[in-house]
Design a protein that fits this description.
By secondary structure, the chain is an alpha/beta fold. The chain has helices at 15-26, 42-45, 73-77, 105-109, 147-165, 180-186, 200-215, 231-243, 256-263, 275-291, and strands spanning 2-8, 29-33, 48-55, 58-63, 83-85, 93-95, 115-120, 123-130, 133-140, 169-176, 191-196, 220-225, 247-252. The protein binds iron/sulfur cluster (SF4) (2 copies).
Length: 292
């Protein structure tokens, strides 16, 4: 079983369009949508949810009214200003759950043991059926932390399904950027495919994500989306990338068919014959051949 993670140094490079097309081409696979902060692969794959589970990614504090003596200690020591004072209420203190970082300090120091510190539900994860195969995906709650932990959970569940059903591929739509969730999405993967665009900022973001993949010693490949909108920058990016030991595995034409396919809720390879669809096929064939 091979796990391929599709990432981009930033959002808006076409990462999810590439992921959706590779999903449609892989035939036997599990899909893992690890873009848990802003998942949108489901818009194209239309998953039918079979199983929903809560994600408890951290702890949060809550004041138990009957036990609170209004001493104000929690308000004084919370360095995230998450304990709010409102003298019109009883008790006069309550916790702002958006500001609470779940550090547990208030609960530890409360003299009346009046602060519960319990695992909090930060989101949900799902196992679904799609027309291309099973899919594991998730939704992180608003302002919820621990997206790295949720990404790991989604990948672990995808692996369990791939092993159980003997499926040869896991295709992971990774989060954008280079933060903690991206690290969680690439560690231990068999290959990373970076999707970039031919702009100066695209080149910089690519360098950062390429460094990350190099650090974890993961075979890394590059594809340039809409390369023909600026062939010179595209060439420059390719040269730099290859000098860093990253193989350029494909170029994707700028093609209105990509947007038209999205509007119809389809990966571009399942829409109509187009330059972009042919480019996506080449990328998949190249990936298959390098992964053996
Ligand atoms: S530290 Fe405990 S007893 Fe004091 S105000 Fe806070 S919750 Fe109430
Ligand atoms: S758990 Fe930490 S962040 Fe949350 S209210 Fe208590 S002291 Fe503040």
């Amino acid at each position: 079983m091979k796990e391929i993670v599709i990432v981009s140094g930033k959002g808006g490079t076409g990462k999810t369009s590439v992921a959706a097309s590779l999903v449609a081409l892989a035939e036997r696979l599990v899909v893992a949508d690890c873009d848990v902060d802003a998942a949108d692969l489901h818009l194209v794959l239309e998953p039918h949810i079979k199983k929903t589970e809560d994600f408890t990614g951290g702890k949060s504090a809550g004041i138990v009214p009957g036990r609170c003596s209004n001493c104000g200690k929690c308000h004084e020591i919370c360095r995230f200003n998450a304990v709010i004072k409102d003298e019109s209420k009883q008790p006069a203190y309550f916790i702002d759950h958006v500001a609470c970082e779940g550090c547990g300090v208030c609960s530890y120091f409360c003299p009346g043991k009046a602060i519960d510190f319990k695992p909090s539900v930060n989101g949900q994860w799902f196992i679904s059926d799609t027309r291309y195969g099973p899919m594991v995906h998730a939704r992180l709650g608003i302002a919820a932390e621990n997206s790295g932990k949720l990404v790991s959970l989604v990948r672990d569940q995808a692996k369990i399904i791939a092993e159980k059903d003997n499926l040869p591929y896991i295709i992971v739509d990774g989060p954008p950027g280079i933060g903690c969730p991206v690290i969680s999405s690439v560690t231990g993967a068999d290959a990373v495919l970076i999707v970039t665009e031919p702009t100066v900022s695209g080149g910089h973001d690519l360098e950062r994500v390429a460094e990350l993949a190099k650090h974890f010693k993961i075979p890394t490949f590059l594809c340039i989306n809409k390369y023909d909108i600026n062939p010179e920058i595209a060439k420059n990016i390719e040269e730099k990338t290859e000098a860093n030991g990253i193989a350029v595995i494909g170029r994707i034409h700028y093609d209105k068919a990509v947007t038209e396919a999205q509007i119809k809720g389809l990966p571009v390879v399942a829409f109509q014959d187009s330059a972009a669809a042919r480019d996506m096929r080449t990328i998949w064939e190249n990936l298959e051949s390098v992964l053996g």
